[in-house]
Every structure is written in C-alpha cells, then in structure tokens.
Design brief:
- The protein is an alpha+beta fold.
- The protein has one domain.
- The protein is 49% helix and 14% strand.
- A 3-stranded antiparallel beta sheet has the order 2-3-4, with helices on one face.
- It is globular and about 35 Å long.
- It starts with 7 loop residues before the first helix and ends in a 6-residue tail after the last strand.
Length: 111
C-alpha cells in the first residue's frame, strides 16, 4: 500500500464528527431562515459546516445520509435514535422536501 491509499480504519466514518456536522448543519439551517445570506451569523455557521464536511470527506468523495422517520442511517449504521438534534434534522427533511437520502460531496461545493 502506498502512502496515499487509505486503510479501512481511516475510511471508517467518525460518528463524533458526523454528529458535530449534523448539529452545526441544523444551526446553519435555522440561521439561514432568520437572517440574510450575507449576515455574519450565516457566514460563520456556513464556514463551520464546510470545515466539518472537509473532515468527513477526508477519505471519501461523498457522504450519503439515509433519513427515515425512525432515524438517520450512514454507511449501514443507524445513529442514536434518542438524540434530539437528529430528530429535529429528520423532522426538517421529512416535512419540507421529498429528498430522503441527501448526498453531500465536496466536489459539488465551492470551497
């Protein structure tokens, strides 16, 4: 293996970073609903979300979240069903769009 290849342990998704991503994405979503796009709160929270997304996508090109009424599924693993932040995130997606498995890729973002 050359030093640019990731090992399977490196490609395993860090659930703490994922939780942090979902938590901060919820904050950014709420701020975007309250403030104009160029407001400092929106800008700062967007930078935070993108920074965490870079960490999530360090060894992969995209992350797909399976969103169901019962929870969030990532890489075949269901995240903690009792987490209130996850419930808020689920409620937003299920009640505002038909998109149930958003894929987030760094290549689609202007970073």
């Amino acid at each position: 293996m050359n030093h640019y290849q990731a090992t399977s342990s490196q490609t395993h998704l860090d659930t703490q970073v994922l939780s942090n991503f979902i938590y901060n994405l919820n904050i950014a979503r709420r701020q975007l609903a309250l403030y104009p796009v160029d407001h400092p709160q929106v800008v700062n929270s967007s930078h935070t979300v993108l920074s965490i997304l870079k960490k999530l996508c360090h060894f992969r090109s995209e992350i797909t979240l399976g969103i169901t009424p019962g929870g969030i599924i990532v890489e075949g693993n269901r995240l903690d069903e009792t987490n209130p932040t996850y419930h808020d995130f689920i409620r937003f997606f299920l009640h505002s769009t038909l998109l149930l498995s958003p894929s987030i890729a760094l290549s689609h973002l202007m970073i």
